[in-house]
Write a structure and sequence with these properties.
By secondary structure, the protein is mainly alpha-helical. It has 5 helices and no strands.
Length: 203
Amino acid sequence: MCFGGGGDYGAQARADEEARKARIAAGMSAINSTFKQFNPDFYARRENAVKETLMPQLNDQFDKTKEQLQYNLARSGLTDSSVRSANEGEMRRQMAMNEATIAGQATDAANQARREVEQNRAELIGQLNATSDSTQAAQNALSRAAIASNQPSISPLGMMFQNTTGLLGAASQAGAYDRNAPGLKAFGFPRSSIGVGKERTVS
């Protein structure tokens, strides 16, 4: 039995499939082009941003705590004593631990950004394969990339030098929370002479 108008439905289906594949290829090209900005340099910048934000805060806490510790030692007549050595050794130990903590937070931030970027990319590819809409894929890629490229807020540090010893405990409390604590100013030394934000070790 013959049917009139006999179009080649197989040929049409093949043509439609080829057109669909071409749209998907165009969409993939748009996604890849938009997401190529998320390269190793991008994740290195994300990691460095955490360090550049938090390390000055840590150094500032260290300097203020050290200054207040020196004041407490002098006020107690313990400038040349084992108490001083113990407290300063504890400060150095905590500084090293805090630097490692910040380095870990920086690495975590970069890894989190990488996971989010890859998740966004995978979702875009899934949507493209389902719809074969290359135009929408390109628009969605631009939108998601813009969001992913924004630097998230970085929470400020809490008090990083713990109250593990009596004098250091008082010093860390004053150094972290009381900017008017007397410190070495009580002995005639201006705060600017302490090297705030630069000094990393206790001499």
